[in-house]
Specification:
single chain; mainly alpha; 6 helices; about 0% strand
């Protein structure tokens, strides 16, 4: 095995967060898939979940936001940015 690959595997195996459940990420994706919620409601709930996340789980919230963005119809993006808070 190549030294670089061996080093990457050793680092991954030493990671204490590797393999832990990501309950907040799971909850965020449930929010994204909830068609009863508006874009604004989804954004608020995801932001609240992100505030609770720590470590690698928090870092993965970039993927959650990207998923929300690509799964939201364009019309809702426009109305979401023009809604008063």
């Amino acid at each position: 095995m190549d030294n670089a690959l061996a080093a990457m595997l050793a680092k991954a195996n030493a990671d204490t967060e590797q393999g832990k459940p990501t309950l907040l990420l799971d909850a965020a994706f449930i929010v994204i898939n909830n068609n009863q919620l508006s874009h604004s409601e989804k954004s608020e709930q995801i932001a609240a979940l992100e505030q609770q996340a720590k470590g690698q789980e928090r870092a993965h919230f970039a993927e959650v936001w990207e998923s929300l963005y690509v799964s939201t119809p364009f019309e809702q993006h426009y109305t979401a940015t023009s809604e008063p808070k």
